[in-house]
Specification:
The structure holds two protein chains of two kinds.
Chain A: H1 3-23, E1 29-35, H2 46-60, E2 63-64, E3 67-75, H3 80-94, E4 98-101, H4 105-117, E5 121-124, E6 141-143, H5 148-161, E7 166-172, H6 175-190, E8 194-201, H7 209-216, E9 222-226, H8 229-241, E10 250-253, H9 258-264, H10 266-269, E11 273-276, H11 284-294, H12 303-322, H13 327-336, E12 338-339, E13 347-349, E14 355-356, E15 359-364, E16 377-383, H14 385-388
Parallel strand pairs in A: 1-3, 1-4, 4-5, 5-6, 7-8, 7-9, 9-10
Antiparallel strand pairs in A: 2-3, 11-15, 12-13, 13-14, 15-16
Helix pairs in contact in A: 2-12, 3-4, 5-6, 8-9, 12-13
Chain B: H1 5-36, H2 43-59, H3 61-64, H4 74-95, H5 105-126, E1 144-146, E2 151-153, H6 154-176, H7 178-188, H8 190-195, H9 200-222, H10 232-247, H11 252-272, H12 280-291
Antiparallel strand pairs in B: 1-2
Helix pairs in contact in B: 1-6, 1-9, 1-10, 1-11, 2-4, 2-5, 2-9, 2-10, 4-9, 6-7, 10-11, 10-12
Classes of the chains: A alpha/beta, B mainly alpha.
């Protein structure tokens, strides 16, 4: 081999090397799972979400485009400033390519904005505020699982049809609670119900008796809980103590995960209806995932954790198809895809960042109906994707071009 | 909603109920600070341990030790859980806190804060952070009683009366008995008391055990009302510290009266202006610190 050919070969190898480096930044795909791992929502997301993300990476083969995939995790303590600081460090120093989970809307809104400014994709599975894909939508922010509108639509209709037409809200006093209360009131009004009042409690909170008694005296026949996690379980438990929700007034949980049902116990929670995006016992695929998940985690997966699995899987598929982990390119690729896995069926990503998919109305089983430890709820209705989310034509997202 | 006198009365009553918990927790803190000069940030974790001790004793302990029929009911838990957690406190003091004697407050604060994080982390690993229900509320305390102006759950009334009794007993023990006199003297001048032939280190260890035992007792009482969760103490401890600061660090009566009073003020705030209910305690704390830096009942 002449010197010339060697030189050419070296040059070619170098070029190939640089071409590859353009594909995957830092020669590794880093995915950050950020959630409130130590707060009232830890059972919904927390460590389980990290486990789900790791499973997704392993199921994908551990590598994408020949480069390793790494999962990072952090606790944002439900504080937007901490979440932002973590995101900044992840992106600037660690070279994180995508951030997922982000339960707690106030944190999610801050991180989504920050990540988009830095060209990094966020796939939100944990937070509920509709502002994420409306007033505060961003080009790289994706809202992957439920939102507060979907929750309200799913539950308001059946409750009002059954006669519960006067609603009072016990609301967690921050972005998520406000969004949930607003969406629910709108849906209730549109469905022919009446909103008679609301009381806002600090987040997180321990004693709900005071708010419950205010709700009791409000003249409402539905007490809607616009809170989540441990706040919801404590509200329901304490309502039981005061005998609220057993007579003419009924309690409606606007956001309930199976971790809360488990915490309340079937005896207390039976008959409770709520909207969710996924349940572990829906089909063979979900059961298979759950079986593997429970070998690594001490609880059945919540819909949030399942969504994290799906989000990481679809993200890696998009990186592979786009040939790069560059945020904009992957976002464009995701926009072209139809998501099908154990979490999503034929779900689509819209220009505003909203992923539209079916939602389900669930009912908590009675202790008699339950056959095993995690046999907690049954799916009683499906809310089709086109009805479950705010239609694109009504979106307040500036990224959506209005065809008027 | 119009705010009637009755509504205020109802909220005041609910607030008093929470205040009793504040009082019992801040009492333990005040006793510990008074005698050990330690800002016990692990107090919330011991409160959580008390609740878990009751829960585990009722639902799991039997299975663990091969006696599936063994169930420690609520009444026994009221006695045993504080004893057990108190012993744990004695252990913590003997193995760790003792080494910090004479050092700056900051060291004790950091150590106890660390202990709290470790304990919470441990329980987060094994238990649902959304909380686990405590199934052992005695049947005789089910239901409600008519107080004239409201229906009040029997259990809450019991918890209120019980914790008030415990608070008063503690106050009596420390302010009116010989043992208490020695304790107080030990606070003022440990060297002199030691010179009189009293084993001050032992006294200190037992006091720490007693203080965290009180926290555990509050935990057992709280278990049937709230979900038993690894983080139940972390959420409460900040308010309780504010109570101690307002009452005057180390003041026994101050801790009791302030705990009850602030619980009521907080309760009434929940109906007058709900968004402020979580901050009202801290606003009062700021004012008290400005006007009386030693606290309402503290000595300058």
């Amino acid at each position: 081999m002449s010197n010339k050919t060697i030189a050419l070969a070296v040059a070619a190898a170098l070029l190939a090397g640089t071409a590859h480096a353009q594909g995957i930044s830092g020669d590794v795909v880093k995915i950050g799972i950020m959630n409130g791992a130590s707060g009232p929502y830890a059972a919904i997301s927390g460590k389980g979400s990290v486990v789900a993300a790791q499973m997704a990476v392993e199921d994908f083969g551990g590598k994408v485009l020949g480069k390793p995939v790494q999962i990072l995790s952090a606790d944002h303590q439900n504080k937007p400033d901490i979440g932002s600081a973590v995101a900044r460090e992840w992106i600037d120093r660690e070279g994180v390519d995508m951030i997922a989970d982000m339960d707690t809307s106030s944190v999610a809104l801050a991180v989504q904005r920050l990540a988009t400014d830095k060209g990094v994709l966020t796939i939100n599975t944990g937070a509920g505020s509709t502002a994420l894909t409306n007033e505060q939508c961003t080009p790289l922010g994706i809202h992957y699982a439920y939102d507060t509108y979907a929750l309200a639509v799913g539950i308001a209709d059946p409750v009002i049809r059954a006669g519960g037409d006067k609603w009072f809200y016990i609301t967690a006093d921050y972005a998520f609670g406000h969004s949930l209360e607003e969406n629910a009131s709108n849906v209730v009004k549109a469905t022919g119900g009446k909103n008679v009042g609301a009381v806002r409690h600090p987040f997180p909170n321990n004693d709900f008796s005071s708010y419950l008694l205010q709700a009791q005296g409000s003249g409402a026949n539905v007490i809607a809980l616009a809170n989540a996690g441990q706040d919801t379980t404590n509200t329901i438990k304490q309502a039981g103590e005061f005998g609220i929700g057993r007579g003419e007034q009924q309690l409606v949980g606007l956001l309930v995960f199976i971790s809360e049902v488990k915490s309340l116990g079937l005896q207390t929670a039976q008959g409770l209806k709520f909207t969710d995006s996924w349940y572990w016992d829906m089909n063979d695929e979900t059961r298979e995932f759950t079986k593997r998940f429970m070998q690594r985690h001490n609880a059945a997966p919540t819909s949030d954790q399942a969504a994290v699995y799906s989000a990481v899987t679809q993200y890696l598929k998009a990186v592979e198809a786009a040939g790069t982990d560059q945020g904009k390119a992957v976002r464009a690729q995701l926009g072209k895809m139809t998501f099908n896995d154990m979490y999503h069926k034929n779900a689509k990503l819209r220009p505003d960042g909203r992923v539209v998919h079916d939602m389900y109305l669930m009912e908590v089983k009675s202790p008699k109906e339950s056959k095993s430890e995690w046999d907690l709820v049954k799916v009683i209705d499906t809310i089709p994707a086109e009805k479950a989310f705010i239609p694109l034509s009504e979106s307040k997202c500036p990224l959506v071009k209005k065809s008027s | 909603m119009d705010i009637s006198f009755k509504a205020i009365l109802i909220q005041g009553m609910l607030g008093l109920n929470n205040g009793a918990f504040y009082a019992m927790l801040s009492l333990g803190l005040a006793v510990i600070f008074g005698l050990l000069n330690i800002v016990n940030f692990a107090h919330g974790a011991f409160y959580m341990l008390g609740a878990f001790a009751a829960l585990i004793g009722l639902t799991q302990l039997g299975g663990w030790i091969g006696m599936p029929d063994l169930q420690i009911n609520f009444w026994w838990a009221l006695l045993l859980a504080p004893l057990f957690v108190g012993l744990l406190g004695v252990l913590v003091d003997r193995t760790m806190l003792k080494r910090l004697a004479g050092l700056d407050h900051l060291y004790g604060l950091l150590l106890t804060f660390g202990i709290a994080l470790v304990l919470q982390g441990l329980f987060t690993n094994y238990y649902n952070t959304a909380g686990t229900p405590y199934p052992g509320k005695p049947e005789m305390l089910d239901g409600v009683v008519n107080l004239g102006f409201m229906f009040f759950p029997k259990y809450r009334l019991f918890a209120l009366v019980f914790s008030l009794l415990v608070c008063l007993l503690t106050w009596y023990l420390i302010e009116r008995t010989k043992l208490g006199a020695i304790l107080r003297a030990g606070t003022e001048n440990p060297d002199l008391v030691q010179a009189l032939g009293i084993n001050v280190p032992l006294l200190i260890t037992l006091t720490y055990g007693f203080g965290v035992g009180l926290a555990a007792l509050a935990g057992v009482l709280a278990a049937p009302i709230y979900s038993v969760s690894p983080l139940m103490g972390a959420e409460l401890i900040i308010v309780v510290f504010a109570v101690v600061v307002i009452g005057g660090m180390g003041s026994i009566m101050g801790a009791i009266v302030t705990g009850l009073g602030l619980g009521m003020i907080e309760g009434i705030t929940k109906v007058v202006y709900p968004p402020a209910s979580s901050t009202v305690v801290f606003i009062i704390m700021a004012i008290v610190l400005l006007v009386r830096p030693a606290g309402l009942f503290g000595r300058e």
